[in-house]
Specification:
The complex is a heterodimer of chains A (about 110) and B (about 120).
Chain A lengths: L3 E4 L2 E4 L5 E11 L4 E6 L6 E5 L3 E2 L7 E14 L8 E9 L2 E4 L3 E5 L1
Parallel strand pairs in A: 2-10
Antiparallel strand pairs in A: 1-3, 3-7, 4-5, 4-8, 5-6, 8-9, 8-10
Chain B lengths: L2 E5 L3 E2 L5 E8 L8 E6 L5 E7 L6 E3 L7 E6 L4 E6 L8 E8 L7 E4 L3 E5 L2
Parallel strand pairs in B: 2-11
Antiparallel strand pairs in B: 1-3, 3-8, 4-5, 4-9, 5-6, 7-8, 9-10, 9-11
Chain lengths: ~110, ~120
């Protein structure tokens, strides 16, 4: 079973900064099945990126995803106030879905 | 617009049972795989189970296998999760989510969740 590790656990940043979040898989995974979600307190998660680099419908272009093999990255080019949230990566493989533990982006 | 509305969450004693429901609207429910995903208080997301569009293919996380049963009624646009032998560690918000048709097995729509609390 694939394990996803996200780092760092928490990031304290200011609006306007560039953010790079990491998701590492315990073994090589298909980019087709790597996704990123955003979750704000009291809300359901929202799909941001699928297929490692494709933005979901309605997602602003300041969000981008990249990576392959075991290392994947979610980048927010310029943090907006509404971007302070928890971000999860997720993988599908062998009929199982796995989520990473999440990275919290909070206001410095 | 796509809507998923969960219901059935409650306070249940350990060893008890509960049935969650998810009412879908705004899309052709019978065309999509569906999943249950849960989130314990203050914790991350944990996938629980999925069911294929026709209901013939099902899988579960090891943590619930043998205790939980997923099902669907496409005529009623509804997804269900029967939970038996409940444990304290099953306490969580349970979300139903639609697996995207063309977005690499990602979950493109989620309900707002229903809270299940297991406590004596």
């Amino acid at each position: 079973e694939i394990v996803l590790t996200q780092s760092p656990g928490t990031l304290s940043l200011s609006p306007g900064e560039r953010v790079t979040l990491s998701c590492r898989a315990s073994q090589s995974v298909s980019t087709s099945y790597l996704a990123w979600y955003q979750q704000k307190p009291g809300q359901a998660p929202r799909l941001l990126i699928y297929g490692a680099s494709s933005r979901a419908t309605g997602i602003p272009d300041r969000f981008s995803g990249s990576g392959s093999g075991t290392d994947f990255t979610l980048t927010i080019s310029r943090l907006e106030p509404e971007d302070f949230a928890v971000y999860y990566c997720q993988h599908y493989g062998s009929s199982l879905f796995t989520f990473g533990p999440g990275t919290k982006v909070d206001i410095k | 617009q796509v809507q998923l509305v969960e219901s059935g969450g409650d306070l249940v004693k350990p060893g008890g049972s509960l049935r969650l429901s998810c009412a879908a609207s705004g899309f052709t429910f019978g065309d999509y795989y569906m999943s249950w995903i849960r989130q314990a208080p203050g914790r991350g997301l944990e996938w629980v189970s999925y069911i294929s569009s026709s209901g013939t293919t099902i899988n579960y996380a090891d943590s619930v296998k043998g205790r939980f049963t997923i099902s669907r009624d496409n005529a009623k646009n509804s997804l269900y999760l029967q939970m038996n032998s409940l444990r304290a560690e099953d306490t969580a918000v349970y979300y139903c989510a639609r697996r995207a048709a063309a977005a690499g097995r990602a979950f493109d729509y989620w309900g707002q969740g229903t809270l299940v609390t297991i406590s004596s």
